[in-house]
Amino acid sequence: MTLGLFSWLLLPCCLGLLTHEIPGAQAGSVPSAAKTLVWGPGLEANIVLPARFFYIQAVDSSGKNLTTSPGEKTFEVKIVSPAEQFTRIWIQVLDRHDGSFLVRYRMYATYTDLHIHILLKNKHVAKSPFILKGTVYHEGCDCPQPNGAVWETHMHCPRSFPQIDRDLSRYATVDLDLNSREIPQRFGQRQSLCHYTVKDNKVYVKTFGEHVGFRIFMDAILLSLTRKVKLPDLEFFVNLGDWPLEKRKPTEKIHPIFSWCGSNNTRDIVMPTYDLTESVLETMGRVSLDMMSVQANTGPPWPDKNATAFWRGRDSRQERLELVKLSRSHPNMLDAAFTNFFFFKHDESLYGPLVKHVSFFDFFKYKYQINIDGTVAAYRMPYLLAGDSVVLKQDSAYYEHFYSELRPWEHYIPIRADLGDLLERIKWARDHDEEARKIALAGQQFARNHLMGDSIFCYYYKLFEGYARLQVTEPKVRKDMVLVEQPADDLFPCYCHRKRVRNTLQDALCSSGLLYSSKLPTSFLAKIHLKVRCVTFRGMYKQKWSIVFINMFSFVFN
């Protein structure tokens, strides 16, 4: 038997990803299995996310929500597929320390009829087991829903996003042929720019400028989205730099430039930041800070937090220098320090010594979090909102895609751009502790409702779909554009029921689960006799095959 096949057979045992074993609840908190609530997108088969998630709210026998943690090991969660002996799924149960839990899981293969068991002292919770009927695709599976409206319904996307409506309202039409000539002339030499075309749900790109490494973030979200839903054909330009580019007035001819940040003085079309986008795509992957992990690392309970305003960062704006100087003058109210100097000269007599990096999760040991611009809007804002502290946000000309939906004094405490009222605001928060706490909770709820992975995918799709409707010329794969390939998924290939299966030997073997790789050596093909026939069953193409008896363990790759 080959090493590759042997590794594939052993992988489920090595991963150990079958269950997340959690013993009983702590004494003193008594949630009820029957009354406890469970909800969220991770309970629906048609919502495909890199990491799926749902919530558990512990409720006692009288029907009251628990507001403190009953213990991080209260609930046991298992996810299985009756058709499979093993399920390659990584599960994490995150205690939000407020009586609720966030359960997230990342699938590494595609399954049929997943059963999600949620247990409290061996009793099923709420309507457990929750059954995700039909095919449940993993993130790497290239199986787009052909109907965008159906996908939007499955995802529970809102009818519109205020920022998208505002951005696209500036354009009556979009002439792609004209843009393909004029935009590179205006921005291509001095800026880092990508020219994208999505055609037949395939992604093509051409880059302009020297520093185009950030293209990887845009490539990644486009590839992920096209694996989930068929995008309309479209052609657009993405700014890879920090600063928005289109500075012309609305009365002048403006060009549609997609950027990760907007400002009151520019006319760019704003997308979710590359930082937030990557955190969604790489949740339970290569990032440790994401919109889920931060909810489980919110520091001590509100009464036990340090009643001091907190900030750490680098010297990327003059106001940050003023903030640190203010902290040195009022250390009893404000703890602000630099971890790095890059833009300004480091004068230790003014700004103090550099301090060591602090884990973002440790920020929430403090009640008051300061969000102040860097080169543009500070991209930490989503994570600050998701925590358990109240955000003091600087008034700013820069904004992210969701700022227009935030309300001062409801979701955050506003501070002037020059920080002139910062100490006054900190004093107000100290004197109005309960009100500050309510603002913190409202900001946290906003993040849960608007900044999780499902919302980010909806935003991108609605943006592309709305932009495509403005196009008056045909999107084209332009000269020198290259295809952005979907990543190979040879280890756990999926069988997409929406695509017609090719009548080939390779498909027959791989869809049958006999081999994990779709690349079969010629020497191997010569060793067996195989008959393949495709049959139609309920509109879905499946393969049946039979071979002259050969023991699968005797296959030899030469």
UniProtKB/TrEMBL annotation:
Involved pathway(s): Protein modification; protein glycosylation
Catalysis: reaction(s): L-seryl-[EGF-like domain protein] + UDP-alpha-D-glucose = 3-O-(beta-D-glucosyl)-L-seryl-[EGF-like domain protein] + UDP + H(+); L-seryl-[EGF-like domain protein] + UDP-alpha-D-xylose = 3-O-(beta-D-xylosyl)-L-seryl-[EGF-like domain protein] + UDP + H(+)
Database matches in Pfam families: Filamin, Glyco_transf_90
Residues of the signal peptide: 1-27
Keyword tags: Endoplasmic reticulum, Glycoprotein, Glycosyltransferase, Signal, Transferase
Domain Glycosyl transferase CAP10 residue range list: 230-474
Filamin repeats: 28-134
Single GO MF annotation: glucosyltransferase activity
Cellular compartments per GO CC: endomembrane system
GO biological processes: nervous system development
Keyword match Transmembrane: no
The keyword Transmembrane helix is assigned to this record: no
Source organism superkingdom: Eukaryota
InterPro entries per UniProt: CAP10, Filamin/ABP280_repeat-like, Filamin/ABP280_rpt, Ig-like_fold, Ig_E-set, O-Glucosyltr/Glycosyltrsf_90
SMART domains documented for this protein: CAP10, IG_FLMN
Entry's family note: Belongs to the KDELC family.
Name of the protein: Protein O-glucosyltransferase 2
